[in-house]
Write a structure and sequence with these properties.
The chain is of the alpha/beta class. It contains 13 helices and 11 strands. The strands form 2 sheets. A 6-stranded parallel beta sheet has the order 2-1-3-4-5-11, sandwiched between helices. Strands 7-6-8-9-10 form a 5-stranded parallel beta sheet, sandwiched between helices.
Length: 325
């Protein structure tokens, strides 16, 4: 009675296997496969590459990273991944980087200096191909990074204290102006603003642009915020102040959609006339959960493309187009 002898699975091809198949030394095969083929003849390069292809050779990523001093990873530090906008931009970046065979490591800094500095230290230990700060805050670690001249890209918010640093995002000042002009054009007589922390350049510029266009239709008392980082809590507190006023505004700009959700909820529960409410981010959920919301839309796919261009030595930043509904 015969029995079947199972063939053990073939082991992955090694660099030595490629070298022996091509009839060259291991050193020559290594130079060719790592793109350092200046001293090898064209036929030698072709022979090594053909052998690697036939043997399905795949270099070990860890070994390659040690040789080059850089990994295939890009580190992205975001301030709040519970915010759908941050998650959408990060997803756009990951999708774009995949086209170049790069991976993404994502950290949530909690919008705090300590969290950001911890993430910077952890990510630098991985020797990332690039460091992208999606919503940076001022911190000692970031200042040290900038002094050292390491390439850092700022997305959605400008570098704290260094507005000329490489930046990808919309023209937030113009977007704020656009919202005020739209509200005034639609007949709003009294305006209000609800905003988050002004250490965010995006927030500060949106408020400044709205103020510039609103003129006398916006009283200082109607520029509202509250302590903390939670946009829902800030929006709810600010909306209570709107209710307590002698006259409700008929146009309100919130510097994020999350703020707008909270403002709308409080005003709706209080009853009375509902102002036109504008937000920022234009996420896909709005059409389903907030059809009442006018939101400045961000070009999410364009963020990833612009980051990829920067990674490939392209422009040191880009101002992306926003859209109004």
């Amino acid at each position: 009675m015969s029995r079947t002898i199972e063939t053990p699975p073939a082991r992955p091809a090694t660099l030595r296997d490629v070298a022996e198949s091509a009839g060259v030394s291991v050193a020559t095969a290594s130079r060719v496969l790592n793109g350092i083929a200046g001293k090898a003849r064209a036929e030698t390069v072709a022979r090594v590459q053909q052998a690697a292809q036939q043997l399905a050779y795949r270099p070990l990523a860890a070994a390659r990273d040690l040789r080059t001093g850089s990994s295939r990873l890009v580190a992205v530090l975001a301030p709040n991944l519970a915010n759908p906008t941050m998650a959408a931009i990060a997803a756009s970046i990951e999708e774009a980087l995949r086209q170049d065979g790069l991976g993404l490591v994502l950290c949530d800094t909690r919008d705090a200096a300590e969290g950001q500095d911890r993430a910077i230290a952890e990510m630098r230990a991985l020797s990332p191909r690039g460091l992208v700060l999606l919503g940076a805050v001022a911190s000692p670690g970031l200042a040290a990074l900038r002094r050292g001249g390491e390439p850092v890209l700022f997305v959605a918010r400008r570098c704290p204290g260094e507005p000329a640093a490489p930046f990808i995002g919309i023209d937030d000042h113009k977007a704020g102006r656009d919202v005020a002009e739209r509200l005034l054009g639609e007949g709003a007589k009294r305006l209000a603003v609800v905003h988050g922390p002004l250490f965010s350049s995006a927030t500060a510029e949106r408020v400044a642009g709205f103020r510039a266009a609103a003129g006398g239709r916006l009283a200082s008392a109607d520029v509202l915020s509250a302590p903390g980082l939670d946009h829902f809590a800030i929006g709810a507190t600010a909306a209570q102040a709107l209710i307590a006023g002698a006259e409700r505004p008929n146009g309100v700009m919130c510097t994020s959609d999350l703020l707008a959700y909270a403002v709308h909820r409080v005003l709706l529960e209080a009853g009375g006339p509902m102002p036109a409410i504008w937000g920022f981010d234009g996420g896909p959920l709005n059409a389903w959960v907030a059809p009442w919301l006018n939101s400045v839309g961000l070009p999410y796919a364009a963020f990833g493309a612009a980051v990829r261009a920067w990674m490939n030595g392209g422009p040191a930043g880009a101002i992306l187009p926003h859209r109004l509904p």
